[in-house]
Amino acid sequence: MLLHNYSGFKIECGTDEAGRGCLAGPVTAAAVILPDHFELDLLNDSKQLSEKIREKLKPLIEEKAISFAVTHLEPKIIDEINILNASIKAMQQSILKLQPTPIYIIVDGNRFKPINNIPYSTIIKGDSKYLSIAAASVLAKTYRDEYMDKIHEEFPMYNWKKNKGYPTKEHREAIAKYGTTKYHRMSFRLLPEQLKLEL
């Protein structure tokens, strides 16, 4: 059973990101403030849910949330500041878009940096413990998947519609064959040693 609140403060937001381990596409974060008596069957850590259920939950979360926001940070920024900092920055930017401003922040994982002096706690596996983090994980994942489906049209040979930019065998083979795109994260090891790109 997911818990409603961690801090005891009424305006608490949960935040999470998606796409951290991908070779292409943005890292996407969401932040969500839920009302006191929020209930939503099936809501859980987005990784535990099928795509169909996530798609079904997305509009329900948006409709019932007091406030929610989503941020995409592009590969260029990821390459400049590294994926951990980019993940945190995407979460911070999402939090800054929330109305009202949260009094407390709960973050999935174990790393975060303070934003506007709002107190926060990092919670390992928070997306399977707290409703607001689970809701943020669903929004981050569904918005990112939509983004990957869209850029798939531009570069169908990488099959991002299916792999969403994750390092699947098929994705790596396409990089070896066609090279990289503006959506690839150049600071990541895009190919194993045996498939070196001729640069």
Automatic annotation (TrEMBL):
Q: Name one GO biological process term.
A: DNA replication, removal of RNA primer
Q: Which Gene3D superfamilies does this one have?
A: Ribonuclease H-like superfamily/Ribonuclease H
Stored SUPFAM superfamilies: Ribonuclease H-like
Q: Where in the cell is it found?
A: Cytoplasm
What reaction does this catalyse?
Endonucleolytic cleavage to 5'-phosphomonoester
Primary localization:
cytoplasm
For this record, an example GO cellular component is: ribonuclease H2 complex
Family (UniProt): Belongs to the RNase HII family.
- Write down what this protein is called: Ribonuclease HII
Per the UniProt entry, what species is this protein from, by scientific name? Flavobacterium amnicola
Q: Lineage of this protein's species?
A: Bacteria, Pseudomonadati, Bacteroidota, Flavobacteriia, Flavobacteriales
